[in-house]
Amino acid sequence: MTPEEIKLHFKKIEELNIQMSLVDDIDSVNKETYSALQRADNAWKAYQDYLTRADAPFKKMIAERNNYLKVTSGVTGLLNKAVVASKELGIPVENVKGYSALKANIKTGNEVIDTIDTFKDPSSFQ
Question: Which end of the chain is more exposed for a tag (fewer CB within 10 A), N or C?
Fold first, then answer.
């Protein structure tokens, strides 16, 4: 191999390592996002079901909402990195493991957060 071929070979290995790291990051954040999404969704449903004793479920719902927002605060940046990396590698971003699932979970999560945000603190009714 020529020195140029060796450099190209190592560059491809480096790009693959970066892509694999990005895949791991997306997969990890997606699992955490999905878990936070489920907890936030269950929390607002519990609030609805237990309105007569709504103080505790309301507080839990708000805590899970805030946790979901914290967990997902950097997701947009991560998804943008995946788009850039996939373009550099010449692959469709949808082929990056976990990318589509994470986008779908964020979309659903935003709908859950919008629902949670419609509820009023039960103490305001007293």
Answer: C
